[in-house]
Amino acid sequence: MDRRDVLKVSAAAGAATALTLPAMSFAQSPGGGSRTVTGHLATGAPDFVYLPVRVPRGVREIAVSYRYDKPDVPDGTPGNALDIGIFDERGTALGGRGFRGWSGGFRDAFTISAEKATPGYLAGPVRPGTWHVVLGPYTVAPQGLDYEVTVTLRRGEQGETPRPSYPPERARGRGRAWYRGDCHLHTVHSDGQRTPEEVAAAARAAGLDFLTTTEHNTTSGHAAWEGLWGEDLLVLCGEEVTTRNGHWLALGTDPGTFLDWRYRARDDAFPRVARTVRRAGGLVVPAHPNCPFVGCQWKFGYERADAVEVWNGPWTADDELALAAWDNMLVSREDWVPAMGNSDAHREPQAVGLPQTVVHARDLTRRDILHGIRAGRSYLAESAKLAVDLSAAGPRGAHAAIGGTLRAASDAEVTVTLKASGAPADATLHLVTDQGTLRTAPAAAGPLVWRTTPSLATYVRAEVRHPAKEGSPVPGAMAAMTNPLWLERAERG
To answer: Is the Cβ–Cβ distance between 252 and 285 less than 8 Å?
Structure first.
């Protein structure tokens, strides 16, 4: 079929262009059998290709497998990468009512029945009607992309769908305290190689108090943690929303909340999806915004963000760029968003909790942790061995900690103190303001004390850095960093 005959701007995919193929019918074999479709996509193909599948009555299980070619390409040229997922007979609209799963490019086959589903997919009845297998040509080689999709329907009685068991919204906690968490983690429910059991064990070993499950474009991991949370570990539900113009984390959403990824920055869908996150009680957090990989760099702006992932995994040049861009936001307190640090751990030897976000919260509950993150009452650290305390003291008992504000006369003396217990012996402490770094000292020398005034510094934040590599113009890797505390000029009296 000529591409021009089937290409359309599909409302099902928000505002993204989509190619809808002729429907796959099982009319000649009611309730069972296999069908295969092949096709070719050229460079510049639509973002999504929909294969309608007419499912008759009497089907117990639907199984889908696919493959595509991976021709050689010149260095520096993206090759073929084809994602896959499925929507059921309820439709493919932006609200996601018919969503049944997404595995991206991480699996070449999946099955769905009422009783169970492949990780990344949601168990539930296989009802009659038109389902849609969704292909996402993430990148297409210059030669184009040849694909083959096989759908198998198996007859039988519908089984019973297990009732999902979602994590509780609170753990025992220690009352008002600092709580350590990792809010960007992957398991076998997307492209990770660890099971939820292995991630929970790693989180406890890393000294974490909470974690967030953030699988790519699917909620199937939300119900995968039964028996793994506890009084010592709070598990939050979330998702890594993987679009063509950047990835973002939805943190602490209501379990099962569908979040669409089928749009670009040029479309009008992101604001609506961000509102969905807020209505579900969660936060919007751009992830690894300066990652150089295709589709990873953040293009949506920060006006709808609640925080930003400045530090992703072991410190790299990408993080240094993200830090610089984030620091530029701090000139205007109205425009800034707090910084976060997460491991984005997928497999061994990637370490869960490297880095971690340490949040000052009223208690170890979903609501309190998210409130602390949104308010910027947090710092980032490479491990639980390192604890940071940044504070400012002014006249008449005025005081501020991380995320807080100290108001004093423009010329009033303010004493800023930075403590970093457990810091590496060869690390350096830095106090950074809107003018740049104004004080440094060896971590081994003890607390760093600096006297300033609100007229000199709009904000103060702290960094704890490892030594720079000899001869390198790049600063040393981060060991810890804080969100700012603010110095606000006030009239005398």
So the answer is: no
Looking at the chain, the number of H-run helices and the number of E-run strands are 5, 30
Using DSSP bridges, classify how beta strands 428-433 and 436-442 pair: parallel, antiparallel or unpaired. Answer: antiparallel
Are 293 and 287 within 8 A, CB to CB? no
Residue 472 binned pLDDT confidence (cut-offs 50, 70, 90): confident
Give the SS3 label for residue 195: coil
Q: What is the pLDDT of residues 141-170, one digit of tens each?
A: 999 999 999 999 999 999 999 999 999 999
At residue 34, φ and ψ (nearest 5 deg) are: -125, 150
SS3 content of the chain, % helix, strand, coil (to 5): 10, 40, 50
Tokens of 458: 């709009």
Closest CA to 344 of 361, 357, 326: 357
Handedness of CA 274, 277, 281, 284 (dihedral sign): negative
For the record, the structure tokens of 322 come out as: 């993200």
- Please check whether residue 459 is in contact with residue 381, taking contact to mean a CB–CB distance below 8 angstroms: no
**Cα gap 267→260, rounded to integer Å:** 13
Q: Are strands 414-421 and 177-185 parallel, antiparallel or unpaired?
A: unpaired
Domains annotated on the chain, with CATH? 3-155 (2.60.120.380), 177-381 (3.20.20.140), 387-489 (2.60.40)
Kindly report the pTM of this predicted structure. 0.94
The pLDDT of residue 347 is above 70: yes
CA–CA dist 245, 250 (Å, integer): 16
* Mode of pairing for the β-strands spanning 24-25 and 485-489: unpaired
Report the amino acid identity of residue 166: Y
Sign of torsion over alpha carbons 100, 105, 106, 111 = positive
Verify cis geometry, omega within 30 degrees of 0, for the bond prior to 349: yes
Tell me the backbone φ, ψ of residue 277, rounded to 5 degrees.
-60, -45
The span from the CA of 237 to the CA of 235, in Å, is 7
328, containing H or E segment: helix 317-329
What is the token pair recorded at 59?
């089907």
pLDDT digits (tens, 9 = 90+) for 176-231: 999 999 999 999 999 999 999 999 999 999 999 999 999 999 999 999 999 999 99
d(CA 207, CA 487): 33
Coil, strand or helix at 145: strand
Asked whether the beta carbons of 420 and 427 are under 8 A apart, the reply is yes
- Check: CB of residue 242 under 8 Å from CB of residue 235: no
Which of these, 80, 98, 7, 79, lies nearest to 50 by C-alpha position?
Answer: 7
- Asked, as a colleague might, if the bond just before 142 is cis with ω within 30 of 0, I would say no
Is residue 78 packed enough to be buried (19+ CB in 10 Å), middle (13-18) or exposed (0-12)? middle
**What is the C-alpha to C-alpha distance for residues 195 and 189, in angstroms, rounded to an integer?**
8
DSSP three-state, residue 444: helix
